[in-house]
Amino acid sequence: MPAISVLMPVYNAGQFLKEAVDSILNQTFTDFEFLIFNDGSTDDSKKILSAYTDPRIRLMNFDINQGYVPLLNLGLEIARGEYIARMDADDVSAVTRFQKQYEFLQQHPDYILCGSRYTIIGTGRKFNLPIDDHEIKLRMLCSNPLCHPSILVRKEILSRNNIRYDERHMPSEDFEMWTQLSDFGKFYNFSESLLFYRLHNNNISFRKQTQEQEGFFRLTRKKYISKFFRNTGLTDFGEATLYELFSGNYSDYKDLLKFRDLLQKIIKANYRYAVRSDEVHSFLEQCYFNQCTASTRLGIKAFLLGNEFGFYKIPWMLNLKLLIKSVIRYQPISFRS
Q1: Whose CA is closest to 321, among 337, 307, 336?
Q2: Domain definitions of the chain by residue range
Q3: Fewest C-beta in 10 Å: which of 71, 131, 219, 243?
Q4: What is the pTM of this model?
Q5: How far is CA 164 from CA 55, 59, 176, in A?
């Protein structure tokens, strides 16, 4: 049986497909099977894929478009590897990606998933995702800190807990899966880019979500917040307040006071979390400061509230910027007769 099963759905990716496939076949780690699902492509994707003779490729052609999430779940069912790797048909993997990820998970049995930072093809811009488990799980409170096509995950964890992708959440089905997995082990991101990510108009992750999909994404984020703070005994109001805090939208003065009061209560109680309490408190304070920074139209009030938890906890340059913006952007309330 192969050590790794690579899952790659393909739909009209002919322009970039060969580069993506070759980046997998040329890996320094060679013990893998490559499950490729040609999802009813109408371009030359089928022709390109059919030309490969590498025995590690298991090519499945579909005449009718199935959608990538059902095919990923099919891949989880038929994969024979100990680990599951993801790959997109328009990206490029570094040649040492599988070698480094496989060795890391073999040497660290308490980690169940690892990804990496990634670089945008054509611009060289590197996305500096959080590295270790505590950073990743804190960042999950407000964003998705794992790059889906860069991950390697233990299949046994998925199978034992019956975890699959949920099509209702696409294109955020990966975040919903991370939320499920977060209880079963640690996450890790390599600090180096092991994936080169291609931006173009057909990127699935940039397609606009339907209202229903947006609703499921909000439910997943709320579910994760509830799970993370489950030992705090927060009411529904407290969880809803944290969701607003982590959403990072502009807040009025009453909202900032509401956030402050809740954080003071949480910090004073010193609850236990999946990561160290002091790191949780520091993260909450930073999120609160960011909310105050987004509320500079309130004037000096935003600056004063931003430092409710101590001037020394925020870098002086950020504080100076907040003070200047609070003065410049202040919008006094006007009264109309």
Answers
A1: 307
A2: 4-206, 229-328
A3: 219
A4: 0.90
A5: 27, 21, 10
The answer to whether the beta carbons of residues 82 and 95 sit under 8 Å apart is no
Which residue type is seen at 7?
A: L
Q: Measured between alpha carbons, how far is 79 from 156 in angstroms, rounded to an integer?
A: 11
Residue with tokens 């233990």: 154
Render 217-280 in DSSP notation, one character per residue.
Answer: HHHHHHHHHHHHTGGGT--HHHHHHHHHHHHT----HHHHHHHHHHHHHHHHHT---SS-HHHH
Residues 164-211: tens digit of each pLDDT: 999 988 889 999 999 999 999 999 999 999 999 998 766 555 556 678
**Res 336 pLDDT > 60:** no
For the chain, helix, strand, coil in percent to 5 are 50, 15, 35
Domain 4-206 belongs in CATH node 3.40.50.150: no
- 162: alpha, beta or left? (left if phi > 0; alpha if psi -120 to 50): left
